[in-house]
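Anyone up for a design puzzle?
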């Protein structure tokens, strides 16, 4: 197992442990106090736990090399896990919105606020800050969408926990409805995250070309003096890997060795600029003659 695999597995495993701890802590205190805000956070953390487990196994599988049945590797398992996280978040939102609106309509908003209510929320914020930073660091280092989705997931937990904390403070002064309002605010935050995660995952699963990556490649190709022109630039991603194809036109009459040298140079330049890329360059002699006036 290489360093990348070890680091990704380690940070994903720590995330699972943290999610398990927070889920249990929030659930116990939420049941004791009857706080919908805390119970919604417990459910949110419970789905976070499921998502963290899915992420843990997805990063274990995604780095497996290509085989006879998977010529492009197993990277898309990361994108699929991100899509699963999206559905889990939407389930969370549906329950929170239903329960929050029901409590506000019925007027059954009274909760018992005690010191443990504050302890669990503050603890949650601290843990989420630490694990989201750790996940983001490794995700950016190895271009892992599964870990990045996890990091984004948990960074929004910080904001949702802060909203719940505000609801508890207001409930402490007798404004009990604030807890249900805080829960609905959590749902809105989660909906926003769901949209971001889902859109990115679906784009990759449907092989949509990433605009920023295409723009970067066009810049590299346009700056190459050996290329007269190019076409059929195709880009797709799978997990942390990028698969790039392009046809370049070179001066006619070049030897096979020289043409291959240009092709290899272009491939290496792209790989240097965009790590974890698999590049295929097709060469054609340029037969295009500019129009004479």
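Challenge accepted. My sequence:
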């Amino acid at each position: 197992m290489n360093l990348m695999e070890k680091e990704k597995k380690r940070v994903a495993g720590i995330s699972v442990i943290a999610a398990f701890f927070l889920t249990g802590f929030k659930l116990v205190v939420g049941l004791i106090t009857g706080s919908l805000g805390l119970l919604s956070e417990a459910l949110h953390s419970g789905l976070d736990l499921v998502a963290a487990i899915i992420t843990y196994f997805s990063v274990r599988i995604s780095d497996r090399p290509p085989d006879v049945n998977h010529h492009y590797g197993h990277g898309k398992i990361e994108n699929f896990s991100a899509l699963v996280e999206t559905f889990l978040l939407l389930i969370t939102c549906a329950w929170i919105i239903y329960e929050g609106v029901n409590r506000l309509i019925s007027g059954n908003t009274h909760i018992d606020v005690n010191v443990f209510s504050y302890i669990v929320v503050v603890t949650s914020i601290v843990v989420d800050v630490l694990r989201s930073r750790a996940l983001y660091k490794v995700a950016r280092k190895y271009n892992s969408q599964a870990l990045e989705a996890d990091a984004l997931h948990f960074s929004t937990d910080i904001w949702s926990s802060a909203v719940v904390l505000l609801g508890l403070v207001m409930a402490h002064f007798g404004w009990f409805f604030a807890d249900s309002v805080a829960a609905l605010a959590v749902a809105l935050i989660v909906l926003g995250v769901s949209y971001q995660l889902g859109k990115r995952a679906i784009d990759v699963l449907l092989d949509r070309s990433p605009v920023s990556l295409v723009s970067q490649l066009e810049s590299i190709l346009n700056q190459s003096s050996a290329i007269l022109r190019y076409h059929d630039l195709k880009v797709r991603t799978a997990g942390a890997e990028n698969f790039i194809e392009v046809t370049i036109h070179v001066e006619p009459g070049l030897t096979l060795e020289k043409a291959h040298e240009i092709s290899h140079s272009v491939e290496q330049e792209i790989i240097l600029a965009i790590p974890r890329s698999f590049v295929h360059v097709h060469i054609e002699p340029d037969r295009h003659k500019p129009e004479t006036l």
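A detail worth pointing out: Residues 3-33 form the longest helix (31 residues).
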